[in-house]
Amino acid sequence: MQKFIFTLVCSLALASCGTDLEESEIDSRPQVSKIRVTNTASAHTAERMFVEQNQDDLIGTLTERQEEDLLEGGVLIDEGDRYTFEPDPDLWTVAALLGEPGVPIARVHNAIHALLFANNVTWCGGEIRGTEFVYEYVDNFDGEFETYEEYEQSISDYVDCGTGE
Fold it and tell me: Residue 62: beta bridge partners?
């Protein structure tokens, strides 16, 4: 009986605990996750790398497995004499969950990250490692916009050497 009363008292005590957040603070939290912002900025930056830089050099920085993951995932499209990088994850052929057919999406994101880590953004008037370019965007803009569409516009502007605003 004492155990039951102790459990009941603890449960009531925990139930009476609220958060210190006002309802307006909860509603003002970002609607788009930092991971999604990072992945979107990464994909758009990688896409621009394939436009601006030597594609063979870019591919050469990937392991064979990473290259296969990007090709099989529909992210990197081999068009014979050149590659196209597809930044829209809705068009990728990846497995979002374990056991689904396709390349696991985590492996695709890891391959994109490896590409960005090994290569520099060179088209904005200097050189900066691709991962740093993305992290600067995320550090400056995470939580700034309410919708994914606003982030896409901002990221496109940033990757085109704009302010991202």
Answer: none
* pLDDT tops 60 at residue 20: no
Distance CA(106)–CA(110), nearest Å, equals 6
Q: Is the pTM of this model over 0.85?
A: no
Q: Supply the Cα-derived Rg of the chain in whole angstroms.
A: 22
How far apart CA 136 and CA 121 sit, in angstroms, is 12
Cβ contact 40:142 at 8 Å: no
Let me know how many helices (H) and strands (E) the chain has, helices first.
Answer: 8, 6
* Token pair of 88 as six digits: 């829209």
Using CA atoms, how far apart are residues 12 and 152, in angstroms rounded to an integer? 45
Question: In sequence order, which residues have a C-beta less than 8 Å from that of residue 47 and are 6 or more positions away?
Answer: 85, 86, 87, 159
- Cβ atoms of 127 and 121 within 8 Å: the answer is yes
Q: pLDDT tens digit string along 25-68?
A: 545 554 889 999 999 999 999 999 999 999 999 999 999 999 99
